[in-house]
Write a structure and sequence with these properties.
The protein has 258 residues and is mainly alpha-helical. The chain is 78% helix and 0% strand. Belongs to the MotA family.
């Protein structure tokens, strides 16, 4: 579970509830209006169905799950594993790596090692691996675009709901006592749209973008590492090459640990 995402959501919701609780004259009942919620959330989802194919929309639950329960690889363990493979290849020959593929959990590393063991041409291997990276990047962009689209439509439907409320209110001007509550209800949809967009959908899109960048960095390291192994580079040279992808603080920690 991503503690930052869950903590951010809990904090954001908690602050809103606290603000309502301590504001003079406010009540929770004044901030609950199911028709307004249906207009904002339902409208944003309906508009997204128009913008995306059904298959893409059906991915929404898995996209949200990926935000809350990410399976991110750390770069340092990947570099360590690639250096170990380079040492084996240099000591026992690249064919010795075939026996190590059963220990590899990442299918991307396994594919690269298998191609290296099979003697695949270096340029062809790089082209295949980079095509795989591009496919992953495209999938990530689709998930991010889905969240961004919902985040963009939610405030728009909030405004639509407000206009609907104002029209209904103006149609009942013969009852002055109903104008105040009617105006409050009309404005709730704008509030709902802003909250849904800025506390859920847009932060979700930003977190997906962050995860995507991290994953692509790891895969770039894997491509460089496997090509280096196939070319027979010294493991220490390989390690130095891949460490350039790490932040300076992480490199310092590695050197101190060594």
């Amino acid at each position: 579970m991503d503690k930052a995402s869950v903590g951010g959501l809990a904090s954001g919701i908690g602050l809103l509830i606290l603000a309502i609780a301590i504001a003079p004259g406010s009540s929770f009942a004044a901030f609950i209006d199911y028709p307004s919620l249906a207009v904002v959330v339902g409208g944003a989802i309906a508009a997204s169905f128009i913008a995306f194919p059904i298959k893409t929309m059906l991915l929404s639950p898995s996209v949200v799950k990926k935000i809350l329960f990410p399976k991110q690889q750390e770069l340092q363990p990947v570099i360590k594993q690639l250096v170990e493979f380079a040492e084996i290849a240099r000591r026992d020959g690249i064919l010795a790596l075939e026996s190590k593929t059963k220990d590899v959990e990442d299918p991307f590393i396994m594919m690269g090692i298998q191609m290296a063991v099979d003697g695949t041409d270096g340029e062809l291997m790089e082209a295949i691996l980079r095509a795989e990276i591009q496919a992953v990047s495209n999938r990530h962009k689709t998930g991010k675009a889905l969240m961004e689209t919902m985040g963009r439509y939610a405030p728009a439907f909030g405004m639509i709901g407000t206009l609907m409320g104002l029209i209904i209110m103006l149609g009942n001007m013969d009852d002055p006592e109903a104008i105040g509550p009617g105006m409050a209800v009309a404005l709730i949809t704008t509030l709902y749209g802003a909250v849904v967009s800025n506390l859920f959908f847009l932060p979700f899109a930003d977190k997906l973008g962050f995860y995507s960048k991290r994953e692509l960095e790891v895969r770039e390291a894997i491509v460089r590492g496997i090509l280096s192994i196939q070319e027979g580079d010294n493991p220490r040279v390989l390690e130095q090459k891949l460490n350039t992808l790490l932040p300076q603080a992480a490199r310092t920690q590695d050197s101190e640990a060594a």
